[in-house]
Structure formats: C-alpha cells, structure tokens
Amino acid sequence: MNKKLLWIVGGVVGLALIVGLAWAIANEPARDPNAGYGDPTVEGENLPMVENPNAGDPAVGMTAPTVTGTDWNGNEITIGPDGRPKIVVFLAHWCPHCQAEVPRIIDWLEDGGLPEGVDLYAATIFTNASRPNFPPQDWLEREGWDVPTVMDSAENEIVQGFGVLSTPTYIVLDGENKNLGRAAGEIGVSGLNALAAIAESSIEG
Amino acid sequence: MSDQALRLYNTFLALLALVSLAGAAALVTYRLAKGREAAGRLLGNGALWLAWAVAAVCTTGSLVYSEVVGFVPCLLCWVQRGFMYPLSLILLGGAIWKKPAVKYVALPMSLLGLATSVYHYVIQIFPHLEGISCNPTNPCSARYVEVFGFVSIPFMAGAGFTLISVLLLFYVKAKKE
After folding, report:
1. What are phi and psi of A126, to 5 degrees?
2. A39 φ, ψ to 5°?
3. pLDDT tens digits for range A86-105
4. Which of A6, A176, B86, B119 has the fewest beta carbons under 10 Å from its own?
5. Chain B partners within 8 Å of A7 (Cβ)
C-alpha cells in the first residue's frame, strides 16, 4: 500500500513538474497569428487544378489571373500582364521541400541563372499559424530571400487562382500573362534553367 | 485552440515523450545493473497499468490533435493510430483482469507501432524518401509540430511505443520469475 502510494504521489509530482516546465518553455510572447497572411486581389479566370502538372499541364495557353498584393513590408506587388515574361514560385513555410528548394533558388539567382528580361516572383501559400516555421517571412528573411513575394490570404485566393495543389509549384507566364507551363516539386537548378528557357523563348517568339 | 495553448500542449507532450524515453532507458539500465529478478519486482503488475497509461495518453493526445486542433492525420499517422488505439483497450483489460497473456498481443503491436514511428520520423528528416513535393492534404514528410527542433508527432508516438514495449518486456520477465 505504501509502495503504491509512493508511486502515485511520485507520478502526480512528476506530472506537475512537467506541466510547469512546459509552461515555462512555451510561455513566449504571443505571435500575431495574422502576420503571415496577405490580402491580395485575384482578378481573372482561375486556372484549373492539376494533380500532377509535371505530366502535362492542360492549362497551357490559358491566361492566368492578375494578382495584386503586398509582401510582409507592405510593398505592393502585381503579377500580371506587364509585357515581361516571368516565373512564379509558390512556397509553403512548413513544407520541407520548399525549405530545401529556397537556398537552391537563391544560389541560382546569385549565379546569374535568371535570364535578362525574365522576372522571378514568389507567393507564400498554404500559410498556417499552427504549423512550424511560421510566419513565412521570418524563414525567407533568414535564408536571405530577395525575390518580390506576395502573401496569400487565409482563404487561399492565390492558390485557387493558379490551381496549385502542392508545394513548391512553379508557373511560367509570358508577357501577356499566358500560362506557358506549371511544374511541381523540387526541380533544382536544372529545372530552373528549363523554366527560364521557356520564359526566355517567349521573348524571342 | 489558441496559438499559446497549442504551444503549451506541444511542449507538454514533447517533454512527456522525452521523459518516456528517459524512463525506458532507466528501466533497461536498472535491468542490466540489478538483474532480471529485481527488475521484475520493481514494477510488478504495475507495469501493465503504466503501459496502459502511456497508451491512453498517446491516444488522447492524437485525438486532440486531429479533433480539437484540426491536424489532418497522414497515412503513416493512421497506421500508428491503428496500433496505439487498440493498445489502450487491450492493456486496460489486461491490467484489470490481470491476464499475463495480454503481452503476447500487446508487445508485437507496440513493436510494429514503434517501427512505423521510426520510419515516419526518418521520412520527416529525409523528405526525399517520400517524394519531391508537399501535398497539404496528406503530407507524411511535413511536420505539424516541432518542439526543441527535433520532437515531432511520430517522435512522440515512437517514445510512447518504446516505453510500452520496455514495460511489457519487464512484465514478461516478472511473470517468468
């Protein structure tokens, strides 16, 4: 009986210590749960969702919607028909594949991989305050990200507009905002070069 | 659940997981230092009650994540649930009715659950093993929770399975004496 009581008392005390320790560790200043979200406007017809765009994108040739939003510093960004071809990459802060791809994109840009006359944009999507690595801007700034990046809303308006189902996803747009193709997953430097070549060819064409 | 409450909940479960692993390591060390008989006497039939408590906490913890917090369980999460949820009933029955035979069902289930947790955790460390992109509706490689930089949900489940397995092994030894 005494031994049993000892186990019970020990268990309760131990549990109380764990709760106290968890409270002390987790009791950081509350984060702003809205910090990672934007309020973009998405105008135009949505591109269809495709399970695996790498196997062929049926939306090639369709005009993508025009997105106007802001980055986390409040700078206005428009992804639309501005006469310049562009690549847009869609990233999620909690996605390990995006976390692996971002440094590759940065290195690719530093090595001059992006052709003259082609722009690169990004969008933070599927943002979720209850998941790790939130908010996305802290992660991207930590990585040294210097790409114009628009933040999606909690309602996933950009996701729906561009028919994104997984991350990272890329889309190549010509100067009139027509979809030249989408790709999903870690594509690395060779994939980035391929997308850049598609974008560049629309200038020559 | 608020952001602050979720952080507290995650940290609490992460600490429990680390305490579980420490407990399992301490039990194994005790067994090696003091021998089989002393190890069996240390917990006696309490080993089954303790194993049930671990399974019950793991079951409740995962249900809170999916039903209260709203995390969508991935395929491997469901496999681990498939081993853990029945354990919380089987071990309770074994402890109440003092049925030593329960270990022959519970121990293989716990070890299979542990193997799944280890595989899931490895996928989280090396996401390329699963694929090249994240599907937000079923991401086995993406972490819903990350405490201290390394404790994720499969880590917690693995810690639970480890302690249950060690306790059942102790219980086996105790009954053989």
Report:
1. 50, 35
2. -135, 65
3. 999 999 999 999 999 999 99
4. A6
5. 46
Burial string for B78-88 (b: 16+ CB within 10 Å, else e) reads ebbbebbebbb
Strand partners, A171: A88, A182
With contact defined as beta carbons under 8 Å apart, do A118 and A199 qualify?
Answer: yes
Residue written as token pair 């939130």: A134
Residue of B14, B124, B127 with shortest CB distance to A97: B127
pLDDT exceeds cutoff 70 at A1: no
Which site among B43, B60, B130, B133 would you substitute to test the A interface, given the most A Cβ atoms closer than 10 Å to its Cβ?
B133
B52 vs A139: CA distance, rounded Å? 40
- HEC string of B134-163 equals ECCCCCCCCCCCCECCCECHHHHHHHHHHH
How far apart are the C-alpha atoms of B4 and A27, rounded to whole Å? 7
Q: In terms of Cα–Cα distance, which of A64, A65, A70 is closest to A40?
A: A70
pLDDT at B172: 64
Structure tokens at B9: 């909940």
Mutate to test the interface with B, among A50, A52, A95, A158 (most CBs of B within 10 A): A95
Beta bridge partners of A181: A172
**pLDDT tens sequence across A58-74:** 899 999 999 999 999 99
Q: A179 - beta bridge partners?
A: A173
Q: Would you call B135 and A92 a contact, using CB atoms and an 8 Å cutoff? A: no
- Write b or e for each residue in A143-154: b if 16 or more Cβ atoms lie within 10 A of its Cβ, otherwise e: eebebbbbbbbe
Structure tokens at B27: 């039990």
ipTM (interface pTM) = 0.70
